[in-house]
Amino acid sequence: MKRLKQNVLAAVIAATCAVTMSTATASSHREAPFITENPKVDATDFYMFRSYEPGRGDYVTLVANYNPLQDAYGGPNYFSMAQDALYEIHIDNNGDAVEDLTFQFQFDNKLGNKGAGAALAINGKNVAVPLKNIGPVTSSDSSALNFSESYTVTMVDGDRRSGVKTAAVGSNNGKSVFAKPYDNVGNKTFSTQDYAAYAKSFIHNVTLSSCPAGAQSGRVFVGQRKDSFAVNLGEIFDLVNTNPLGPVDGEKNVIDDKNVTSIALEVPAACLTGGNASGIIGGWTTASLPQVRVLDPTPTFEQPAVSGGAWTQVSRLGMPLVNEVVIGLPDKNKFNASEPKDDGQFATYFTNPTLPALLEVLFGVKAPTVENRPDLVAAFLAGLAGVNANGSVSEMQRLNTKIAVTAKSAKNNLGVAAGDNAGFPNGRRPGDDTVDVALRVSMGALCHLNLGLCTPADALNGDLAYTDGAIQNAAQFDNVFPYLKTPVSGSPQ
Nearest-5° angle of CA 149, CA 429, CA 325? Predict the structure, then answer.
């Protein structure tokens, strides 16, 4: 338990400080050496919040973004999901840092023309075309598509591998396979239907039969979205070559023209909490690959490699920025393979953080001196008393589902720190400026509040308005599920 408590402190330090140097690094884009070799299973951002679409306040929305830094023009293959991967969103509803519910997503890709691939008659021969579509595409007519993706959703009660599994099915048709929209390749492909309307048709109403009676209806969407994070990426990793005390909107969001692939699921809060008295849940996302992969010397479209063995976790994301700027380089791959219950092994990175010290050297501000950083622990690893503390001391997001939803127009992008308790670090909503929040907390902002965690003397510069310079707020997102914006078009003309 002592180790876990240290880890907690550290983790908070991690998440907070993580932001301090990152001042806005993409939340988890390419954060570990091994994951850079497997972008399709690289988690970039994770969101968990009470749905604020009007009339949906009894639901919780979970969004896990994957496949970072997609160039919209990245043809001819664009950005499909991995067929040999297992993508998962985990929920802990009893505060033991172990999943009680898991939602598993698996994908299948198909060639057009019933798997044979589209072909054209050339000099009396049918020749397969090299493109994924050969004409305009709409939600009602996909005949020009030479490629399609589908997926299944499985709900697991208990352990992610040995628990009871139940397939989510379409509420209208009872089918367990769901279609994913084609990426936004360009305006000529979607010339007869705008992409926003096309993608909307792939929001599926689902029945989650293992949820309690009256809490079994949900919605799911998987597809390309505009990257939801904002970051001055190059400058941040050039020894924080920006001004953390400058204007909050003074820097360019260099990933503003990038896309990601979102796995979005809306579930009744009553299903996720497991009936606990507090209404508090923890959540994180992972991706796993088979333990063994053998390259096929005669690869086909369906089978470029042969995979087998136990699922092996290669990606993990709960709180933003932790692995990216807190965990030391030797342990980044290990963190991605770990589970929250084992976070004590990373305690040193949290109890002895390097990022505040780096900011002190680079900018002359004073790093906090409070021992073990109870302020950071509360904000990022254990939860805030009276808000979302649930007894766990592990790195994950925590959400109090009993705290009322804040309407989009009334949201404060600094969340709890600005009196908006429906926001970060009580879960995370699109538009919460997690970087600015983490920066300020990591440098000791909570020491300047009457919380009993530390004192102003412990953080002499903790009351400064630290910022990453890239603006992030609710106005940049939609007010309806799946909330993230329509992806950037690959061909705007």
Answer: 85
2 burial level (CB within 10 Å; 0-12, 13-18, 19+): exposed
pLDDT tens-place values along the chain, 493 residues long: 333 333 333 333 333 333 333 333 446 677 777 888 899 999 999 999 999 999 999 999 999 999 999 999 998 999 999 999 999 999 999 999 999 999 999 999 999 988 889 999 999 999 999 999 999 999 999 999 999 999 999 999 999 999 999 999 999 999 999 999 999 999 999 999 999 999 999 999 999 999 999 999 999 999 999 999 876 666 666 666 677 788 877 767 778 899 999 999 999 999 999 999 999 999 999 999 999 999 999 998 888 899 999 999 999 999 887 887 778 889 999 999 999 999 888 877 777 777 777 778 888 899 999 888 888 778 878 888 889 999 888 999 999 999 999 999 999 999 998 999 999 999 999 999 988 888 888 888 889 988 889 999 999 999 999 887 888 899 999 999 999 999 999 998 6
Other beta carbons less than 10 A from residue 447's beta carbon: 24
Do residues 109 and 304 make contact, with C-beta atoms less than 8 angstroms apart?
A: no
At which residue do the structure tokens 């670090």 appear? 425
In Å, the largest CA–CA distance within the chain is 84
**What residues form DSSP beta bridges with 312?**
289
| Cα 159 from Cα 182, distance rounded (Å) | 33
Report how far residue 60's alpha carbon sits from residue 420's, in angstroms, rounded to the nearest whole number: 17
The beta-strand segments (E) located in 296-386 are: 305-317
Whole-angstrom CA distances from 26 to 16, 29, 124, 192 are 14, 5, 51, 34
Q: What is the DSSP string of 265-294?
A: EEEEHHHHSTT-SS-EEEEEEEEEEEEEEE
Q: Count CB atoms within 10 A of the CB of residue 421.
A: 17
Peptide bond into 353 cis (omega under 30): no
Q: What's this model's pTM, rounded to 2 decimal places?
A: 0.91
CB atoms under 10 Å from CB of 107, counted, come to 19
